[in-house]
């Protein structure tokens, strides 16, 4: 090989080395540009995240501000309600105390109490509801007049205790209860008591409309009542006077006292309650307790004697006071 060829070969190798180095430099530059681009994209993403974070923070701050504002308004409202409630507490306590007291005791003598001497006049009182089974056994028991589960007697209505289920279940939605009172009195008030609504399953069996009759002649009254097939008298007779009619609503108070609208002048010992309707139960009416209040004959006589003595001492000749006036004074 001559010298010229050797020089050319060496020159070619040098050029090849330069080209390789250029290629290496290009690749290196490209890689660095790629890394720079990736870093730039990462920085851009971080910036976008920061912007989104700032935007969400603003929304969160706005939400928190609204919540705090709402809480402040609720606090003001609750504060006003609390002040209003505190003002009504004494009235509510007084009402509860009065209700509790009236549930425990009326504070008036009860002349219809059996243990005090009162009695139920059975022949002048409606039938007791009897629980009969369904089907053939029920039909058979009705034909034979046999009660599978007889109800409690009418005397339950004049007992001192009132417990769930311990009532006189009168047959039907209307009927009568006739009593001989413990003493002869001028009746002035009656009290009706049902199971308290808080422990009662239903008030549909409670009596609703009731009429009260003072019986002056029990024999005449009994004769017409029995002849009329135990139906209601329905109107006044010479031997019976309508002295009151009321509507009893157990949803208001379980124990309610009613003033009689008419005061009679002659004492009586027999009284009849005519239940005209109940609160919707067609089968039976539950009567837990009925009280009768009034002025006994003994008190009337004492008042008459005292008034006569006062009249004699004062040399007055006005005569005895009317019985009705004595009732009002007592």
From TrEMBL:
Q: Which GO terms describe its molecular function?
A: protein-membrane adaptor activity
Name under which the protein is recorded: SUN domain-containing protein
Localization per record: Membrane
Which GO terms of the cellular component aspect does the record hold? Answer: meiotic nuclear membrane microtubule tethering complex
Annotated region described as Disordered, given as residue ranges: 299-330
Sorted alphabetically, the keyword list is: Membrane, Transmembrane, Transmembrane helix
Q: Organism, per UniProt?
A: Anaeromyces robustus
PANTHER family in the cross-refs: KLAROID PROTEIN-RELATED, SAD1/UNC-84-LIKE PROTEIN-RELATED
Query: Bias regions of kind Low complexity — which residues?
Result: 302-314
Where composition is biased (Basic and acidic residues), the residues are 315-330
Which part of the chain is the SUN domain? 117-297
Q: What Pfam families does the database record attribute to this sequence?
A: Sad1_UNC
Please give the InterPro entries that the UniProt record associates with this protein: SUN1-5, SUN_dom
